[in-house]
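Entry for the shared binder. Reason: the reviewer on the internal report wants the predicted structure included alongside the sequence.
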Amino acid sequence: MQVSEDAVVRRFAKLPGVIDLGRAETRSKRRYRILRIPKKVVEKYLSTKAGHTITVAVPPRAERRRKSDNWRDKAILNLAKAGLQNDCKDRKVYREIADRARLLAAFVPESDWSGVEWTEPDYWPEDDELMNSGS
C-alpha cells in the first residue's frame, strides 16, 4: 500500500469486519490499537481503489514452538488424559507410545508425521531389554 502503519490503521479501523483488539484512550494512557483485518476486507478495499479485482496471498503460518520449562509436565498430563479417555491401563501401551513418539521426533520431519502408518511388530522388546540396549 506504500503508506505508514498509522495510515493503514486509520483507513481500516472503522471498516466492517475489522476487529479492534486494542484498548481505548483514558486520561492517563493513550489509545493502543491492534487490528485484525480479514483478507476479504483488504481485497475489497484494494479492489475498490484499483478499479479491478485484486487477490491477496496470505503467507503460511509460522510454525508454533512451545518452549517452556514445564513442557514435560504438560506432555505427561496430555498422555495421561489420552490414556484415561481410552481406558488404557496397560504399561506396555504407554511404553509403545513413548518409543514411537521418540522415533518420530528423531527420524521423521514433522510435516510427514500425519502420513506415518504404524504396523504391529512381530516382536516388541520388553522394558528391561530397552533399558539395557542404551536407547
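Summary line for the report: The chain has a mean pLDDT of 84.
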